Amino acid sequence: MNRLRLLLMIFLVASVAACQPIQPPAEIDPGQAKILNAMSAAPLSVAKDASIMDWPIEADGDLIMLREGSNGWVCFTDTAGTPSDDPMCFDSNGMRWLEAYMTGSVPEIDSVGIAYLLQGASTASNADPYAMEPAAGEEWLVDPPSLMVFVPGKLDPALFPAQPGSGDTYIMWPDTPYEHLMVPVSIAAGFGD
Fold it and tell me: What global pTM score does this model have?
């Protein structure tokens, strides 16, 4: 087995072991609801001490800090404009990837990074990282609860397919600077508490 694939699989098994999203109470004020929404992307053990960010109000605006964290993780609220509730939580290497994506630069990652998407996610295209809506005749690609895995260098399409929808790990945005693995996870009751 390819060494990279083996290391990724060990890493993913360890990461998924604590996957249980936070469920917000039925009634809560809007500011707190955004924080809980962002926290629902990751296990409580990660989300409870993560920084919480909201997306800019204007296209060229700055991210909005909702809560300062202490563990190096950054959780973001639901992404507006998509059909699903898709908050995300990134570790430090994942944040390096996200910052490059947001600025249109090439990610400089020197080790594996991850992001939790325990509410699932949707994207307009698996070919164009910046597509804002699906092409004519296409539909949104909707992923189940997942991990995003970022690795240095290029992913090997012989090891992972580039087609979403099979329920298996796949390469999102292949052959772009932003390619990464989407790894579906099962959420086990009782973990992450």
Answer: 0.81
* Rounded-to-10 torsion of CA 116, 187, 132, 181: 60
Query: Per-residue pLDDT for the chain (193 aa), expressed as one digit of tens each?
Result: 454 454 444 444 444 444 444 454 556 676 789 999 999 999 999 999 999 999 988 877 889 999 999 999 999 999 888 999 999 999 999 999 999 999 999 999 999 999 999 999 999 999 999 999 999 999 999 999 999 999 999 999 889 988 887 778 999 999 999 999 999 998 765 444 4
Can you tell me the distance from the alpha carbon of 183 to that of 158, in angstroms, rounded to the nearest whole number? Answer: 16
Q: What's the CA gap between 96 and 107, in Å, rounded? A: 7
CA distances from 88 to 22, 51, 91, 128, 160 (A): 13, 12, 10, 20, 23
> Residue 138 gets which letter from DSSP?
-
Core vs surface per residue 147-163: b (16+ CB within 10 A) or e: bbbbbeeebeeeebeee
118 neighbors 187 (Cβ within 8 angstroms) = yes
DSSP state of 107: P
